[in-house]
C-alpha cells in the first residue's frame, strides 16, 4: 500500500476537526505538507465514495459527506485500494515447473487472507473514534 491511505485519513480527520468550516485544498495540503493537486486528487476519490462533499466557488471547500461515526476506516481502504496488499508479479511463472504452475494460486490466497485481515481490522475503527486522539 502506498501513502494514499495516510493522506485520506489525514484529510478526513482535518475535516472532522472543523465540522462547521469548509476547508480548502490549500489548507489541507499545508497540514499534510504536500501539493494541493495531490490533495484534490484524493478528495475527488473520497467524494466519489460519498465520504466528502464539496462546495464550488470562491467561498467553497470541503466537508465530511457522512457523520464521522458512520465513516469506518474500511470505507477509506475500499476507496483508495487499487492494488493487492502484497503486490502482483508481472511475469507468468513457468507452467512446467512444479512450483511455477501453483505459485500464483497460493500467493493469491495469501494476499486475499491479508486483505481480509486488514479490512476486518479497519472495519472496527471509525473516524470519530480516531479523531478523539486529537482533542
Provide an overview of this structure.
The chain is mainly alpha-helical and 135 residues long. The protein has helices spanning 4-17, 25-32, 36-48, 73-80, 100-122, 127-131, and strands at 52-55, 61-64. It contains 6 helices and 2 strands, in the order αααββααα. It has a two-stranded antiparallel sheet with strand order 1-2. The two termini are 28 Å apart.
- The overall strand count is 2
The average pLDDT value, as a whole number, equals 92
CATH fold title of the domain at 4-84 and 125-134? Arc Repressor Mutant, subunit A
Instruction: Tell me the strand percentage band.
Output: 5-15%
Radius of gyration from the CA trace? 18 Å
CATH architectural name of the domain at 4-84 and 125-134 = Orthogonal Bundle
Spatial arrangement of strands, main beta sheet: 1-2
Uncertain spans: none
Secondary structure: helix percent: 40-55%
CATH class of the domain at 4-84 and 125-134: Mainly Alpha
Name the helix and strand elements from N-terminus to C-terminus, one letter apiece: HHHEEHHH
Shape assignment: elongated
SS summary, helix count: 6
Structural class: mainly alpha
Largest sheet features = 2 strands, antiparallel
Topology overview:
Blueprint: H1 4-17, H2 25-32, H3 36-48, E1 52-55, E2 61-64, H4 73-80, H5 100-122, H6 127-131
Antiparallel strand pairs: 1-2
Helix pairs in contact: 1-3, 1-4, 2-3, 4-5
What's this model, at a glance?
With 135 residues, this protein is mostly helical. It has helices at residues 4-17, 25-32, 36-48, 73-80, 100-122, 127-131; strands spanning 52-55, 61-64. The protein is elongated and about 65 Å long.
